[in-house]
Design a protein that fits this description.
Elements: E1 2-7, E2 12-13, E3 16-17, E4 21-26, H1 29-45, E5 76-82, E6 85-90, E7 108-110, H2 119-126, H3 128-139, H4 143-150, H5 156-167, E8 173-178, H6 184-196, E9 201-204, H7 209-218
Parallel strand pairs: 5-8, 8-9
Antiparallel strand pairs: 1-4, 2-3, 5-6, 6-7
Helix pairs in contact: 3-5
């Protein structure tokens, strides 16, 4: 608050009366208190940026002294990353001369381009079930729901339905394997493509010795 201090003047000399001089002092203490109150208000009501992460499913660790059989894989694709290359094979892996008498697995190659040989188009085709159902679900959202979701608000009913689509037997599952020459950039680019394609199950797993031999032969 402002205070006015009076001083001087008041003496008559020669029949004239002098005006009293005054000085003004402003007390800033209430303003400081108000600033702290406003700062506290904005801190408590602000929404901070949340880290954008993608959950990955890691398989259980297997003891080295136990024999491991290759698990049966259905409706899945395995990506093998090495240097600037990205190879893949679909469903179950079969080595040369396997007991099932199946043809040996042959690697195919993809790239990160927008053409027909790109990862995005390949994933969109393989995971058409989830993408189609999510698009239909999005089309039923109201304008207000879309606005709230764009601002970071969660719609639990929507998210639960999307998870159900991704867990369906027709949804594509993805295994990602890398050798010691794979680049971090390619791995992140691939994970981004998997997220765009609405892949629900992503499992980084160890590269088999026979798969490494296939990579060397392919290169």
């Amino acid at each position: 608050m402002a205070e006015i201090a009076e001083g001087g003047g008041g003496n008559e000399k020669g029949g004239k009366k002098r005006a009293k001089k005054s000085s003004t002092r402003v007390d800033m203490t209430p303003m400081v208190d108000l600033a702290f109150l406003l700062l506290t208000f904005f801190v408590m009501t602000s929404t901070f940026n949340k880290p954008k992460v993608m959950s990955l499913v890691y398989p259980a660790k297997i003891e080295d002294d136990k024999p491991v059989d290759q698990p049966k894989i259905n409706n899945a694709v395995t990506f093998l990353l090495t240097e600037d290359k990205i190879y893949y094979y679909e469903d179950q892996y079969y080595s040369v001369g396997n007991k099932e008498g199946k043809p040996a697995t042959v690697l195919q190659e993809l790239n990160f381009g927008p053409n027909a040989g790109g990862v995005r188009q390949y994933l969109a085709k393989r995971n058409a079930y989830v993408i189609k159902n999510v698009e239909q679900l999005d089309s039923k959202l109201t304008r207000e729901q879309k606005k709230l979701m764009a601002e970071g608000e969660k719609d639990t009913i929507y998210e639960r339905k999307v998870i159900e689509f991704k867990k369906h037997k027709d949804a594509l599952k993805v295994l990602v394997k890398t050798d010691d020459k794979a680049t971090c950039k390619n791995f992140i680019d691939l994970i981004d493509e998997l997220k765009i394609a609405q892949i629900g199950v992503i499992a980084p797993v160890d590269l088999l010795a026979s798969e490494l031999e296939l990579i060397k032969a392919k290169k």
